[in-house]
């Protein structure tokens, strides 16, 4: 079976080396030494001023919304994982969907201003598949209308924009280190931000709102992560360059076969370095996408429909808004397998099936 993704696992001895330390210290969670070490190593690797390691990427978005004290409407993308939208609603705000660009699959910045009302407090956009949004245009709109910007960069480990980690942009940027992501800590996530005060606030929110052992400043949550998760992150971080390189090679191998008039691949945003976290392809019609999906499954290859359906059409978030571009792309897109050990021969096998089905 060739799944859409497979978690990377480091050599078991390297993980065990960290767990032996955990046994010696008997310190399992609550801002332990491995959590600190991972935060420092990630800061260094990513060259970002601050980050907080959290227990998942969804809590990261919720803490960002809470820390920025957002109210009312939040402009967001319908083309993302459901956690982007659910976090807005969970924090008592309303998602306002703005349609996407059909080439980059990110929120269409030229359509944001028309959606702003006196009720709008922020823009929460996803850098979809690891490909950066139109960050400069969004920053200009936010400044003009006094809005906060949060980026859901769950797919973005290793992506750069204008020479810097894409995590460095936005009032707060969030990511996920879930097992299915390019870099993972089994479960995990992080927030990034350049303002020390905001960071301190998020650090309190992560820890129940504690400001000292018997003092609470904020209504917090349990957003902490453990020594075991940090250990997996430290063991995996050693292999990050190989993981990124293998994704790039796989993408090139796919493109050798699939650069043709009747399939659309992602248009990488200008001035950015794309991490090749996913390999999405968009077919001419939803019927063709369905047929390819079924044929691949019949051959034990399981692509995923990332993302389908468009979030503006899903039951809990349906509010009458239409997003024709997103709805159309959702019906025609498949993500083909990419993961560390996927071989060129397996990619050739997948592509032959795709081409045979297309040519039929
Ligand atoms: C994975 C993902 C999340 C959620 O991250 P978790 O760590 O699984 O909570 C949020 N947004 C996007 C776009 C994702 O892909």
Brief digest:
The protein is built from eleven helices and 13 strands. By secondary structure, it is an alpha/beta fold. The chain has two domains: 226 residues, 3-Layer(aba) Sandwich (Aspartate Aminotransferase, domain 2); 120 residues, Aspartate Aminotransferase, domain 1.
Structure keywords:
360 residues, Aspartate Aminotransferase, domain 1, single chain, seven-stranded mixed beta sheet, alpha/beta, 38% helix, Aspartate Aminotransferase, domain 2, binds pyridoxal-5'-phosphate
- Major sheet summary line: 7 strands, mixed
Strand residue content = 5-15%
Helix content bin: 25-40%
Extended strand count = 13
CATH architecture identity of the largest domain:
3-Layer(aba) Sandwich
CATH fold group of the largest domain: Aspartate Aminotransferase, domain 2
Q: What string gives the helices and strands in order?
A: HHEHEHEEHEEEEEHHHEEEHHEH
Task: Produce the secondary structure layout.
Elements: H1 12-25, H2 33-46, E1 51-54, H3 57-67, E2 73-76, H4 82-90, E3 94-97, E4 120-126, H5 135-145, E5 148-152, E6 160-161, E7 164-165, E8 172-176, E9 189-192, H6 196-206, H7 227-237, H8 240-258, E10 263-265, E11 272-273, E12 279-283, H9 286-298, H10 324-332, E13 333-336, H11 344-359
Parallel strand pairs: 2-3, 2-4, 4-5, 5-8
Antiparallel strand pairs: 1-9, 6-7, 6-11, 8-9, 10-12, 12-13
Helix pairs in contact: 1-7, 2-7, 3-4, 3-6, 8-11, 9-11
Bound molecules: pyridoxal-5'-phosphate.
Pyridoxal-5'-phosphate binds next to α3 and α4.
């Amino acid at each position: 079976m060739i799944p859409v993704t497979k978690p990377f696992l480091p050599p078991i001895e390297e993980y065990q080396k960290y767990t032996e330390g955990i046994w010696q210290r008997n310190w399992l969670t609550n801002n332990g030494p491995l959590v600190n070490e991972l935060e420092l190593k990630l800061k260094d690797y990513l060259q970002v001023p601050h980050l907080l390691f959290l227990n998942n990427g969804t809590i990261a978005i919720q803490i960002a919304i809470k820390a920025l004290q957002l109210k009312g409407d939040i402009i967001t993308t319908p083309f993302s994982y459901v956690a982007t939208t659910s976090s807005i609603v969970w924090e008592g705000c309303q998602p306002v969907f703005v349609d996407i660009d059909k080439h980059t699959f990110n929120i269409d910045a030229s359509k944001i201003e028309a959606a702003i009302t006196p009720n709008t407090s922020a823009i929460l956009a996803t850098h979809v598949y690891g490909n950066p949004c139109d960050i400069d245009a969004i920053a200009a709109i936010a400044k003009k209308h006094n809005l906060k910007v949060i980026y859901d960069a769950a797919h973005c480990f290793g992506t750069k924009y204008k020479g810097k980690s894409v995590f460095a942009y936005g009032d707060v940027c969030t990511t996920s280190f879930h097992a299915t992501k390019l870099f993972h800590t089994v479960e995990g996530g992080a927030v990034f931000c350049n303002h020390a005060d905001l960071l301190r606030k998020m650090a309190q929110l992560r820890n129940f709102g504690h400001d000292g052992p018997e003092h609470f400043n904020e209504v917090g949550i349990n957003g902490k992560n453990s020594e075991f998760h940090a250990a997996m992150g430290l063991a995996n971080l050693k292999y990050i360059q190989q993981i990124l390189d293998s994704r790039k090679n796989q993408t090139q191998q796919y493109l050798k076969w699939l650069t043709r008039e009747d399939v659309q691949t992602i248009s990488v945003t200008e001035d950015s370095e794309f991490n090749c976290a996913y390999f999405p392809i968009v077919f001419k019609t939803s019927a063709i996408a369905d047929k390819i999906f079924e044929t691949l499954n019949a051959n034990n290859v399981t692509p995923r429909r990332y993302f389908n359906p468009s979030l503006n059409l899903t039951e809990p978030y349906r509010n009458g808004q239409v997003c024709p571009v997103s709805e159309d792309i959702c019906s025609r897109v498949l993500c083909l397998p990419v993961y560390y050990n996927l071989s060129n021969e397996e990619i050739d096998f997948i592509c032959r099936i795709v081409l045979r089905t297309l040519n039929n």
